[in-house]
Design brief:
single chain; about 475 residues; alpha/beta; Amidase signature (AS) enzymes; eleven-stranded mixed beta sheet; about 35% helix; globular
Length: about 475
């Protein structure tokens, strides 16, 4: 196979080709690294690339394969890890000069699980500074460019992972999502991303953001994400928030379909502004589910009206943990992050606890509402990609730190812990991808994957590739 064919072969197919010795791990890794060397300067998806280490591991994987050694489900598959997750063999710098050169002494558990299954970590993908914003730029790594349009936002703090997936820089990509940072870059870059139920994938160290950050897969097919999630998921003693149960049979039951499922659709959650081009593509995508045999209704979401004020309290409140860094580092930090930290620094413990009471009522309302629905469909994001040097699209009101106004659809389900995915549903007239958000009941990660897979089969998208040459 030529390099591009190998780059865009799905992980599930590639794993089979490797197991049956039709393709070698060395061949795959050489092709992947050549592609990255040629095209990543235009994309800037990597904070750190471990090419020599990855090549050495590919040779070990090939020797194990030829020698009849144990073969994992992800044997030889090039994989990336977001630069907020700790890794012992690659630096973890979190997109900030404050952490430049920081080298942890251990791996977070899901990295160990991926490597134990045979995945080869090729590098750490870029993130906004401490993952604070929905735009693909940081002081440390600069702009990560959307593969579909150079200079444009690749989205949120898992931008490097989504850009790498879209560009064919590896086959499996890990991201994390505290207010949409898996789903937003998936939307902007035209790939699939799943934020699982909270606790499905262990986090270590456990986040201090009131249990809103979730790790999950980004990929070029729903099946690849299902495979990756099966490997990453399951309880772990280092994370007291992980769920007791292990993952369901995501890959084996992926194509059960959505016939008879009750699906709610909200174009705006009752309050969100949405660009017309995005709204039209999402509405057309929703109609597909009726064709697939689901019962689809456009319905109100009365719980949603409390969300905007709530996220604008909690986002700076949680970023305020960085306030001690400002004295030494403010002039080397993202000015928007500095403004966000300063907005949260004066919040009192009393105010925080009172708002947390309101949050618990909000979460209860969301989960009670889902008793009547299997899934909720919405836009993943209100806008298509825009210039990455801007915090806001030019046609939206400006703010010194509040990027959330164009991302009102994602954060509710970080708070409520529901599984939620972004699946590509079309392109604007300018050729920019748009994502459909599929939200499921808490714990129904399998259902969200099944709904996304049904849509993917009805409206395929993985054959569409950005032109990077």
């Amino acid at each position: 196979m030529d390099d591009e064919t190998l780059a865009f072969t799905t992980a599930t197919k590639l794993a089979e080709l490797i197991r049956t010795k039709q393709v070698s791990p060395v061949e795959v890794m050489e092709a992947t690294l050549r592609r990255i060397a040629a095209l990543n300067p235009r994309v800037n998806a990597f904070a750190n690339l471990g090419a020599d280490r990855a090549m050495a591991q590919a040779k070990q994987a090939e020797a194990a394969l030829m020698g009849g050694g144990p073969i994992g489900r992800l044997h030889g598959l090039p994989t990336t890890i977001k630069d907020l997750a700790i890794t012992k063999d690659l630096p973890t710098e979190s997109g900030t000069f404050i952490m430049k050169g920081h080298q942890p002494t251990e791996d977070t558990p899901f990295v160990t699980r991926l490597q134990d299954a045979g995945a080869i970590v090729i590098g750490k993908t870029t993130t906004s500074e401490y993952g604070w914003k929905g735009v693909s730029e940081s002081p440390l790594t600069g702009i990560t460019h959307n593969p579909w349009k150079h200079g444009y936002n690749a989205g949120a703090s898992s931008a490097g992972a989504a850009a790498a997936a879209a560009a064919g820089f590896g086959h499996l990509h890990q991201g994390s999502d505290g207010a949409g940072s898996i789903r937003m870059p998936s939307h902007f870059c035209g790939v699939f991303g799943l934020k699982p139920s909270f606790g499905r994938v262990p986090a270590y160290p456990v986040s201090t953001g009131d249990y809103t950050s979730h790790s999950g897969p980004l990929s070029r097919s729903v099946a690849d994400a299902a495979l990756m999630l099966e490997v990453m998921a399951g309880p772990h003693p280092l994370d007291f928030t992980t769920l007791e149960a292990g993952p369901a049979n995501y890959t084996g039951r992926l194509h059960d379909g959505v016939k008879g499922k009750r699906i709610a659709y909200s174009p705006d959650l009752g309050h969100a502004r949405v660009d017309p081009a995005v709204a039209a593509l999402v509405k057309a995508a929703v109609a597909r589910f009726t064709e697939l045999g689901a019962i689809v209704e456009e319905v109100p979401t009365p719980w949603a009206k409390a969300g905007p004020e709530m996220i604008r309290f909690f986002w700076p409140a949680h970023m305020a943990r960085l306030a001690p860094k400002l004295k030494q580092w403010a002039n080397q930090m993202d000015p928007g992050l500095v403004a966000c930290i300063e907005a949260g620094a004066g919040i009192s413990v009393v105010d925080y606890l009172l708002w947390r009471e309101r949050k618990m009522a909000y979460v209860s309302a969301i989960n009670q509402w889902f008793e009547d629905w299997d899934f909720l469909l919405t836009p993943a994001v209100s806008v298509a990609a825009f210039p990455a040097e801007k915090l806001m699209p030019a046609h939206w009101p400006s703010h010194d730190w509040d990027w959330i106004s164009w991302a009102e659809f994602s954060y509710p389900f970080n708070m409520s812990w529901n599984p939620a995915a972004s699946v590509p549903c079309g392109f604007t007239a300018d050729g920019l991808p748009v994502g459909l958000q599929v939200v499921g009941r808490r714990f129904d990660d399998l259902g969200v994957l099944q709904a996304a897979a049904a849509f993917e089969a009805a409206q395929p998208w993985a054959d569409k590739r950005p032109k990077l040459n």
